């Protein structure tokens, strides 16, 4: 089967079309039963939060907009699949453009440049849209029923605070979504403590360790022993100590930290001198964030050893992975598992291909979980 992104006329599997709106893409989910089922050869099993899986690469929150999208990627061979972030209230997507291809070197002071054609990185601007809870909960129930038992269904959740909400109210809203997700069939919850594209408190929680602690503890109470991941953003050099505080604050409560949820930049456009998105920054995904994300995983891995004495907490590496060598760089940095978002759209077979390459490589090349 040839699989590629939707703009390729020859493709029999069409992934997210960056030229269409989010709502159109929700409707245009591939028909999963038309996709031949692919399995990664079991040469090596990978540990994802206590579950043994054959495919070493999961799908991060983003490309799987609903159950039909999720079931389709399951048939491509992915075993760990994250349902795009949901809320306790319905929320529309930001207007287009939602994905803008970019080039340039990512830095705290610099800007990236918008491109008309696809590149290996893009600015992401959705604002975490969500179906109303009764709809996503029904969709999750149906998805879990149709998904085979060995596949892991992760659901990403976020709070939807009003301006005057206290941290307790925010934590309760996270916990409500997490409980609903588990009741509807999720195997694992990911709390999104970072969205680079929203200004409300939920977008920046990872920079506030004590508030994050309150959230993960409240969620832990709501979901019992179900696996819990905290997804965090990038710490620029001046915030590195905050990262260490965050690790200490959530250790013992979460089972894994996933990083990074994009790195922000302003996006310049030759036709608009203030820059795209009214000059506001947006989260960048894809190749541009690879180096910094790997470095952050290595830093957390070093910190984790003395803090997490029971060595319970896993690290999930996300950011810029597009092939086997990229995944190996994360494992070498200390990641236990890796996930992809951009590559899952640009090259849907990427994860299972990495799995197949590793299962046929000599055992010396295989990372040990
Ligand atoms: C189309 C798209 C939508 C995304 N939506 C979400 C989201 O809803 N929640 C979230 O936590 N991260 C979201 N992300 C961020 C990814 O999960 C990931 O952290 C980031 O893109 C870096 O990985 P990558 O370089 O493989 O894209 C999204 C990414 C993409 C490309």
Ligand catalogue: flavin mononucleotide
CATH topology of the domain at 33-94 and 149-262 and 285-365: TIM Barrel
Estimated structural class: alpha/beta
The overall pLDDT average reads 91
- Largest sheet at a glance? 8 strands, parallel
The CATH class of the domain at 33-94 and 149-262 and 285-365 is Alpha Beta
The low-pLDDT segments are 1-11, 362-366
The CATH homology group name of the domain at 33-94 and 149-262 and 285-365: Aldolase class I
> Any guess at the CATH architecture of the domain at 33-94 and 149-262 and 285-365?
Alpha-Beta Barrel
**Largest sheet: spatial strand order:** 3-15-14-11-10-9-8-4
Count, helices: 10
Care to count the β-strands? 15
End-to-end CA span? 31 Å
Percentage of residues assigned to helices: 25-40%
